[in-house]
Amino acid sequence: MIAWIGENYVVVGTVLYWVLDTCLRIAGVIVVPRHRRPGAALAWLFAIMLLPIVGFPLYLMLGKAQLPRKRREKQKVVNRLMHLRAREIPDSELDPDVPSWLQSAVRLNRALGAFPLTGHNDADLEIDYQTSLDRMAADIRTASSDVHVLFYTMGLDEVTQNFFDALAEVADRGVHVRVLYDHLGSITHWPVYRAMRQHLDAHGIEHHPMMPVKPFSDGAFQRPDLRNHRKLLIVDGEIGWMGSQNVIAPHYDKASNIRRGLRWQETMVRFRGPIVSEMNLLFATDWYFESGQTLPMETVVHGTASRPGTYECQLVPSGPGFVFENNLLLFNQLFYNAQQRIVAVSPYFVPDESMFSALVTAARRGVDVELFVSEIGDQFLVFHAQRSYYTELLEAGVRIQLYAAPAILHAKHVTIDDSVTVIGSSNMDIRSFLLDMESSMMIGGTDFMEKMHVVEDVYRSRSRELTLDEWRARPTLTRMLDNTCRLASAVV
């Protein structure tokens, strides 16, 4: 037999190849559609049918948006901890004249993410990149007990030097400083990442990478693109920052970005009041997730004696550790209930079918829908995929504002009517809905809405409106590229 196989190895190899090819195609049809959106299932099946030998192993590595078993078990502990400690944060009642759909959104958020609606908060916006870093550094220097830092990307460079100097100063005088940063989101900026770690170590600051890329450390392969994309800073449980900005230079210390003149435009929010305890609790769960340490209750949830403002706020966490796509459900709830106006700002706009339908439906029923995106992109696939949606949006009446190059509009926020704002780290793309751990804040109050409108006006002054005639005139090859990237973006 062995001799015959040796003499006919070409025939044997060909037969084995086609048997394997057929088995992988059949397995794909059986396995891929299970618990998956039709669009994503079709995209994976297309990849498997096109080249099974490559497509099916890729599906096994990247086809499931879930943590490995040990991490899932740990996440269950985190979620229970979050629910128990959230009970210590008192609920606030909405004003009786707010729309019923907004009351429904509050209940939805509480059911999905555990956090209550809190009142008597204050919030300020900051859209200047360097100023936000310097203001955060100034707040850090006021710390007397704890500083909690969590950012997707962190690196020590000339822009962030003041921020890290502030962390070192308070750590040297005995303040507990805890730092989390996403592993892949930071290590890919190696020189400034290494400088940051050396700086933190030199001052005895405890720090951990989030979602470290160690494929088999938890007993199973963990797909490397499951990331922690949150941005949080909490000082003494009294002051909290969150939004879209990372702690790195606005060109991300990349030679290609510097050569192109790219600079990121961000929006950050500074909070005071009871809502900061919710932000601190979210940090504590991520800290436990990465370090195994449970922070003392008095360190996390603070009393509500301080009532610095009038805003009602609710934190909405989301990510692969949650059963439902919390941020997607919130956005859809708000879009379907909007009556007058939707303004959405997102650097990466690759919505799933439900969100796309919600926006188009809102525009067609007379809601003034305005979408802010960047004129140019920093991620080839996402940039071209999002452009594939523009025709249908424009035809429905959505106004698309292109933020002028060479800036990248990286801010992430939505305003609905004069009722509510949602702002945080979540993009309006499939990655943020399924793969990334995100944090969004829902804020009520017409005073804060007025602050948001000022920011929107600034961004509008730096943008130009895309017209349907202009878009239809784009080259055919560009249109084909956009549509191809849209198909590839569904493979999640």
How would you explain this protein's 3D organization?
By secondary structure, the protein is α/β, with parallel strands linked by helices. The protein has three domains: 2-62, no CATH class; 69-104 and 116-314, 2-Layer Sandwich (Endonuclease, Chain A), CATH 3.30.870.10; 326-489, Endonuclease, Chain A (2-Layer Sandwich), CATH 3.30.870.10. It is 47% helix and 21% strand. The strands form three sheets. It has a 16-stranded mixed sheet that branches. Helix 5 (69-86) runs antiparallel to helix 12 and helix 14 (326-337) runs parallel beside helix 15 (353-364). The longest helix is centred in the first third of the chain and has 23 residues, at 9-31. It is globular, with a radius of gyration of 24 Å. The mean pLDDT is 86.
Approximate shape? globular
> What's the gyration radius in Å?
24 Å
- Low-confidence stretches are none
Total number of strands: 20
Enzyme class: transferase
Keywords: Cell membrane, Lipid biosynthesis, Lipid metabolism, Membrane, Phospholipid biosynthesis, Phospholipid metabolism, Repeat, Transferase, Transmembrane, Transmembrane helix
Subcellular location: Cell membrane
InterPro entries: Cardiolipin_synthase, CLS_N, PLD-like_dom, PLipase_D/transphosphatidylase
Properties at a glance:
492 residues; alpha/beta; Endonuclease, Chain A; 3 domains; 16-stranded mixed beta sheet; two-stranded parallel sheet; 20 strands; 47% helix; 21% strand; PLipase_D/transphosphatidylase; phospholipid metabolism
